[in-house]
Amino acid sequence: MSFLARMMRLKSKAHFNTDAGQGAGLRNRARAFDGASKRKVDMARRRVGMLLFGFAASYTVIGARLVEYGYTHPETTSGILPPDRLMAARPDILDRNGQVLATDIRTVSLFAEPNRIVDADEAAEKLATVLSDLDVKDTYRKLTSKSHFQWLRRQLTPKQQSQILALGIPGIGFRPEIRRFYPGGSTAAHIVGFVNIDNRGMAGMEKYIDNQGLAELADLGMTSNAPLEPVRLSIDLRVQNILHDIVKNAMIDYKAKSTGAVVLDVNTGEVIAMASYPDFDPNHPEEGSKDGWLNRMSNGTFEMGSTFKSFTIAMGLDTGKVKLTDSFDARYPIRIDGFTIHDDHAQSRFLTVPDIFRYSSNIGTAKLAQTVSIAEHKAFLTRLGLLTKMKTELPEVKMPSQPREWKPINQITIAFGHGIATTPLQTAVAGAALMNGGKLIEPTFLPRTVEQADDVAEAVIKPSTSADMRYLFEYNGVLGSGRRARVPGFDVGGKTGTADKVVNGRYDHKLNFNAFLGAFPMSKPRYVVLSFCDEPLTGENGGTLSAYTAAPMVRDIIRRSAPILGVEPDFGPAGKDTLVSY
């Protein structure tokens, strides 16, 4: 083979080898490119998958939180709360004729979120421009505290709310609340009572309502802001206004320490009106004094003086050991255990039972009481409810006081109203039993029918004894110390009681507790009226005894309220001031 041929053959092989190498390289480069692209796609897919997982996880968490919030009661810390978060409502209190004595009104209270307050100094100063009595230092302390909630002022007026809103203070909010409102103010304060800042009953019938289960329901969160069925009382607001006015004026006019009165239905035990003065305004109970908060009619005990002679004589008559025609020697004072019992209006003669009642003879009453044993005497007063705690709806009821051991001297003094202290209201209740045929009926501040009263009544004296006591009340009303309580046409009878006050363990004859136990109309008594006047310094015609203070109070109460109570005056022969012949 020639050299040229060999060169061409070698060239041809070389060309073939070159082409083969280049193809392999290209194929390698293609494979490398494909791998890089695949890796990039895979990486992109992984990133998208992670992104989708992140979004899914985020929305899952958000959804779970929304579900959680959906099942959780919203905690609102600013602005006005929704209606279902309002304070639970209380029932309206009405008088027997439907007149409102207490009701709920909507109001708001001011609070702060200290963590949202920007400038505590400025906020306190701005609030003081609206709330003039605001304690700026105390408010600043609250606004700078580390808490998330602070009360600033409870129960604002709508005007105050709008003025504070106009200040534009951040971190300040209002919470809707309920405020108790008493349209009559102090007129029936001791009966209706009052509530605290949280609308809970603190006294009177407001507390009674809570004691019937309202407070427990509120504690369990089972109350709402929906209106409740009103609570109707036995009180007649018209008569209550009259009685409150007379009691208030008597304290002022007679310069007394305190006064009080009650009108009681003798057949049902319903309290038609009752007031004790000084009193307070239940709309602002914190402004009342301790003297004003005390309901002396049911939560104060006093020696009721000669009004107790009514019960002593009734005891003698009911046992059958004394008759109206009997006489007792009242010529000489009684000396016992170092004490001397005498008469303030001594007649120095034998006195019949009507004369003992008319002249209010301590000697005659003491001798009449001695016709029964001490045990019988104590049992009789217990039966009349004068030695036990009175049962009624009003929470403020005090237990009477009596000697731990009854001795002969105790029986004598208790016979004419000294040595034993009872509440004026339970004295009136016992007096009603003397007038209504002999039935003791627990007093009530809720409406009660005669039939319902008969179901709870307890016979404590004979009907004949009740008839005799009605005669004595009328007799004394015509000829005795009850004359100043009479009202023409309304046939009023009763018994005065003047008890010396105990000062430093001794009776002070210059300070008296005066009471009058009256009833009308005596032909068929429907109402008992009891009044008291504690430590008067003057009275009608300058007198300080019961006849010049407590008796005129009863006269004025009956004169103004009898027509309202439906008692028609009688000026005919049957209604004249004449006594029925017994």
Offer a few descriptive terms:
alpha+beta, Beta-lactamase, 5-stranded antiparallel β-sheet, elongated, disordered C terminus
Fold topology:
Layout: H1 3-71, E1 93-94, E2 100-112, H2 120-130, H3 136-143, E3 150-156, H4 158-167, E4 172-181, H5 189-192, E5 194-195, E6 201-203, H6 204-219, E7 231-232, H7 237-253, E8 258-265, E9 271-277, H8 290-293, H9 296-299, H10 309-319, E10 327-329, E11 334-336, E12 339-341, E13 350-352, H11 353-358, H12 362-369, H13 374-383, H14 408-415, H15 424-435, E14 439-440, H16 450-456, E15 458-459, H17 463-479, E16 493-503, E17 506-520, E18 527-534, H18 550-561
Parallel strand pairs: 1-7
Antiparallel strand pairs: 1-2, 2-3, 2-4, 5-6, 8-9, 8-18, 10-13, 11-12, 14-15, 16-17, 17-18
Q: How would you characterize this protein structure?
A:
It is a single chain. With 582 residues, the chain is α+β, with helices and mostly antiparallel strands. It folds into two domains: 83-232, Penicillin-binding protein 2a (Domain 2) (Alpha-Beta Complex); 240-575, DD-peptidase/beta-lactamase superfamily (Beta-lactamase, 3-Layer(aba) Sandwich). It contains 18 helices and 18 strands. It has helices at residues 3-71, 120-130, 136-143, 158-167, 189-192, 204-219, 237-253, 290-293, 296-299, 309-319, 353-358, 362-369, 374-383, 408-415, 424-435, 450-456, 463-479, 550-561, and strands at residues 93-94, 100-112, 150-156, 172-181, 194-195, 201-203, 231-232, 258-265, 271-277, 327-329, 334-336, 339-341, 350-352, 439-440, 458-459, 493-503, 506-520, 527-534. Strands 1, 2, 3, 4 and 7 form a five-stranded mixed β-sheet that branches. A five-stranded antiparallel β-sheet has the order 9-8-18-17-16, with helices on both faces. A two-stranded antiparallel sheet has the order 5-6. Helix 2 crosses helix 3 (136-143), helix 7 (237-253) runs antiparallel to helix 18 (550-561) and helix 10 (309-319) packs antiparallel against helix 17 (463-479). It starts with a helix and ends in a 21-residue tail after the last helix. Mean pLDDT is 87; it is low at 74-86 and 575-582.
